[in-house]
Amino acid sequence: MPVERDVLRQIPLFASLSDDDLQLVANMTVERSYERGDVVLLEGDMGGALCYVYTGLVKVFKTSPEGKEQVLRLIAPGHTFNDVPALDGGPNPASAAAMEASVVYQIWRAELQKLITTRPAVAMAVVRTLAQALRHLVTLVEDLSLRHVTARVAKLLLTQEEEQVGKRLVRQLTQQEMAAMAGTAREVVGRALKELESSGAIEMRQGRAVILNRERLRMLAGS
């Protein structure tokens, strides 16, 4: 089905384009649908495309030779991923998979390069997008290197609440998903949640963590 121009205007890279330019982008955009668990991209593959989540939720992750998964980022509707290989032509640095039924728009590198070289506003938006991605990765390294698991889980709960309020995330993460994001095992996340509950920061209700004291949770997260 045709991609709507108004949807493309929500992508920061294309927000400043004219209607005619947006129509050109729409003509070169491919829409793909994925079910929960479907692989969107594989780490190491070439010919990567810029991807935009229209609906659903996508996780970007790396997998160790032993099969351990580290989630780098969750991509909610309105956000792009796989920006780097779409710009430099290199291999995909990570894999991506749908966490729920998702619709993803893809724009191939050759088409994106044409826009960057002919539209200065798109080039500037690319710089901002890459700067934001770098900040996120620096924060991730800090969390994994310097924060205790309980602090990481506390931060995840705070981030999850913020994204639910902003309607960027419509469901709660499972403990297994939290473990993949925190770089630990599910059992360790379970113990961290019990610690947070004992502190009075949260309460577990039918397996869900409900925040009772946001300021205490922030303190435990080291924010």
Provide an overview of this structure.
The protein is 46% helix and 22% strand. It is of the alpha+beta class and 223 residues long. The strands form three sheets. The protein has a four-stranded antiparallel beta sheet. It has a four-stranded antiparallel beta sheet with strand order 2-7-4-5. β9 (202-205) and β10 form a beta hairpin. α6 packs across α8 (186-198). The relative contact order is 0.13.
Can you lay out the helices and strands and say which pair or pack?
Blueprint: H1 5-8, H2 19-27, E1 29-34, E2 39-41, E3 49-55, E4 58-63, E5 69-75, E6 80-81, H3 83-88, E7 95-98, E8 102-108, H4 109-118, H5 120-146, H6 149-165, H7 175-182, H8 186-198, E9 202-205, E10 208-211, H9 214-221
Antiparallel strand pairs: 1-8, 2-7, 3-6, 3-8, 4-5, 4-7, 9-10
Helix pairs in contact: 4-5, 6-7, 6-8, 6-9, 7-8
